[in-house]
């Protein structure tokens, strides 16, 4: 996953994939390259602020034959990682709460988890059953 | 007078908005497979994840109700159920409760076999200096009992542990006494090739409630090729030992394991048929381990993971056919993974846990008192790599074992939730980290998943199992459920076959 140095001109033995950086973040692109690194050397070159090229060079002859399908697979993978980022951004908070709740009775947490968790009606009750243990009422 | 029920909307109004719950996804057979934090899954049409991310899902649709029921989304009416999801997540980690449960005692390195794939540097059968001493055994028993687990398993390994039967006889009564004093349940298993077993030994095992686990690699030609010994009769000895053990201990107390070598790869069906012929009801299609002596002979015994996966699929297909024909035999690795996929629970199989089972779930006490994080860790030490030697029973306590540098380095790489390549993987709740394997094969406990044999195996096997689940063949699913639940095959399966 080389991101520096001079770019090699694509030839019959490698494939250039054009990436719109406004759609696929750096992290999503690196994760995609990570999974393609078994079969390909992945070289990322920033064309400008908006676009980047990823040059995929097969590590062995067998992969050369698959070059035609590689571009589609790479783009699909990159878009999936971009999608995962969107899901992650919207759910990371509740994931933390879920894990905190799941392990709150284990006695291993150094700090009490922040935030409320559970049924809003039950939460409003003075003897709520649906709360993280010791969690302050909002 | 005509009466009518209130419309559905009165009881379950369509929510105006919904919230996402954390999940991961992958693409499989033209669909999207969603898996949540508790390992619950749902196949949905392609494009569903994008709709969820863009909040474009019709909250009145059946798809929305399915996603809500499986806790991929929630709304005002389902928010109380979030506590249930947290409970499910905790249940998925129940293998962590109680501390180390499996305690392996390597009572000797001596062995009369010379298996090419053996993971241990065996010693000749007469060299008593490679036996565990009473003092070491006493300290190892004490350390085992220091585990907070309410039930522990004591497993004797070697070498060939029956060559040190006197050591076994020394350990068992002392372990039982301490278990009684500490209020712990104690299971005892001996892993033996049975070549040296006698009726006296088996009668002792029967009286002490000891179970036997042995090796059976397949039919005679294959077993004897894999497991050379003087007389070239390992298979005959194993079969004779299995029959005698069953006669004295009972069928249910004798198990067998196989190891897949290069010589095994073309004989998946024959290996399964051998287990059926010998009336076993489980078989574990295990790849060869990349440790110990197996590394020195890998040019003869080793193979690429792709080839093993072909073997696994061929073997599993044959096992399913055997079940279809009416004989119940479960493939153990499939059973382990399906338990994780189809039930709320994890399993006690230490090689497939996250946090990794090494040390948390298993400790190995070597004949010389050294304590290792797993059997594979000990095998690495046989290759002069002591990375996972946690300490020694004569110098350490359980606390110092678990707070020393080797343990802490291991633990840092033991959660697949935090590993590159794993953190986004849909199969994460079913899979593991296995830092020992990756240290051994890649020189890095964290590992490089795209080139990892561990990752390749589990991605392929789990994908295959999900394909079977998605295919939803009635008879196949009844067989798989019988493996997961441990119940007999229903007559309907046999009748429909």
Helix/strand layout:
The complex is a heterodimer of chains A (138) and B (497).
Chain A: E1 15-20, H1 26-36, E2 40-46, E3 51-58, H2 61-64, H3 67-103, H4 120-124
Antiparallel strand pairs in A: 1-3, 2-3
Helix pairs in contact in A: 1-3
Chain B: H1 8-11, E1 19-20, E2 23-28, E3 31-36, E4 41-45, H2 48-53, H3 62-69, E5 73-74, H4 82-92, E6 102-106, H5 134-145, E7 151-157, H6 165-182, E8 185-191, H7 199-208, E9 210-215, H8 220-226, H9 234-249, E10 254-257, H10 268-277, E11 282-283, H11 292-296, H12 298-301, H13 305-324, E12 330-331, H14 332-342, E13 362-365, E14 370-372, H15 375-382, E15 389-392, H16 398-403, H17 405-412, H18 435-442, H19 453-471, H20 474-485, H21 491-496
Parallel strand pairs in B: 6-7, 6-13, 7-8, 8-9, 9-10, 11-12
Antiparallel strand pairs in B: 1-5, 2-3, 3-4, 13-14, 14-15
Helix pairs in contact in B: 5-6, 7-9, 10-13, 13-19, 14-20
How much strand of chain B?
5-15%
The CATH class of the largest domain in chain B is Alpha Beta
Radius of gyration of chain A: 23 Å
Return the average pLDDT of chain A rounded to an integer: 76
Work out the helicity level of chain B.
Answer: 40-55%
Q: Could you report the average pLDDT of chain B, rounded to the nearest whole number?
A: 91
């Amino acid at each position: 996953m080389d991101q520096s140095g001079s770019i090699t001109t694509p030839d019959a033995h490698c494939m250039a994939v054009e990436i719109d950086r406004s759609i696929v973040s750096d992290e999503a692109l690196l994760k995609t390259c990570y999974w393609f690194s078994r079969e390909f050397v992945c070289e990322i070159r920033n064309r400008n602020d908006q676009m980047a090229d990823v040059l995929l060079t097969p590590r062995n002859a067998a992969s050369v034959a698959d070059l035609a399908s590689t571009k589609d697979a790479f783009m699909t993978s990159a878009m999936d990682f971009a999608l995962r980022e969107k899901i992650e951004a919207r759910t990371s908070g509740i994931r933390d709460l879920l894990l905190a709740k799941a392990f709150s009775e284990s006695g291993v947490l150094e700090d009490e988890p922040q935030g409320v968790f559970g049924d809003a009606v039950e939460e409003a009750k003075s003897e709520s059953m649906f709360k993280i243990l010791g969690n302050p009422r909002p | 007078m005509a009466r009518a029920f209130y419309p559905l909307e009165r009881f379950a109004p369509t929510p105006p908005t919904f919230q996402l719950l954390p999940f991961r996804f992958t693409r499989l057979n033209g669909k999207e497979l969603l898996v949540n934090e508790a390992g619950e899954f749902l196949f949905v049409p392609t494009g569903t994840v994008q709709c969820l991310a863009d909040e474009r899902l019709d909250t009145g649709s059946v798809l929305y109700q399915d996603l809500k029921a499986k806790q991929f989304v929630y709304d005002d009416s389902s928010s109380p159920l979030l506590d249930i999801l947290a409970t499910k997540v905790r249940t998925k980690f129940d293998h962590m409760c109680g501390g180390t449960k499996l305690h392996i005692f390597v009572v000797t390195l001596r062995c009369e076999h010379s298996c090419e794939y053996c993971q241990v540097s065996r010693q000749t059968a007469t060299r008593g200096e490679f036996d565990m001493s009473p003092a070491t055994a006493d300290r190892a028993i004490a350390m085992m009992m220091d585990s907070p687990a309410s039930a522990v398993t004591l497993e004797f390994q070697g070498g060939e542990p029956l060559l040190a039967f006197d050591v076994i006889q020394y350990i068992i009564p002392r372990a039982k006494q301490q278990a009684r004093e500490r209020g712990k349940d104690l299971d005892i298993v001996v892993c033996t090739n049975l070549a040296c077993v006698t009726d006296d030994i088996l009668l002792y095992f029967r009286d002490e409630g000891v179970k036997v686990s042995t090796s059976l690699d397949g039919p005679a030609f294959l077993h004897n090729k894999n497991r050379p010994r003087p007389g070239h009769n390992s298979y005959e000895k194993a079969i004779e030992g299995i029959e005698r053990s069953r006669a004295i201990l009972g069928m249910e107390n004798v198990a067998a394991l196989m190891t897949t070598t290069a010589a095994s790869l073309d004989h998946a069906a024959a290996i399964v048929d051998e287990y059926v012929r010998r009336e076993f009801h489980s078989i574990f299609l295990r790849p060869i381990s990349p440790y110990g002596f197996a590394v020195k002979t890998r040019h003869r015994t080793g193979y690429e993971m792709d080839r093993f996966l072909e073997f696994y699929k061929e073997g599993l297909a044959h096992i399913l056919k055997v079940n279809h024909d009416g004989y119940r035999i479960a493939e153990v690795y499939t059973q382990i993974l399906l338990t994780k996929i189809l039930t709320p629970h994890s399993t006690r199989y230490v090689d497939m846990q996250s946090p990794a089972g090494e040390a948390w779930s298993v400790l190995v006490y070597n004949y010389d008192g050294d304590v290792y994080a797993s059997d594979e860790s000990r095998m690495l030490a046989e290759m002069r790599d002591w990375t996972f030697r946690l300490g020694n029973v004569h110098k350490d306590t359980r606390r110092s074992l678990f707070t020393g540098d080797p343990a802490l380095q291991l633990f840092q790489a033991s959660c697949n939730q935090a590993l590159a390549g794993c953190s986004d993987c849909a199969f994460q709740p079913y899979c593991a980290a296995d830092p020992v394997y990756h240290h051994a094969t890649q020189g890095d406990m964290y590992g490089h998943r795209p080139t990892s044999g561990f990752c390749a195996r589990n991605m392929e096997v789990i994908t295959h199992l999900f394909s079977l689940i998605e295919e939803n063949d009635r008879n196949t699913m009844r067989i798989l459920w019988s493996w997961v639940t441990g119940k007999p095959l229903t007559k309907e399966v046999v009748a429909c076959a």
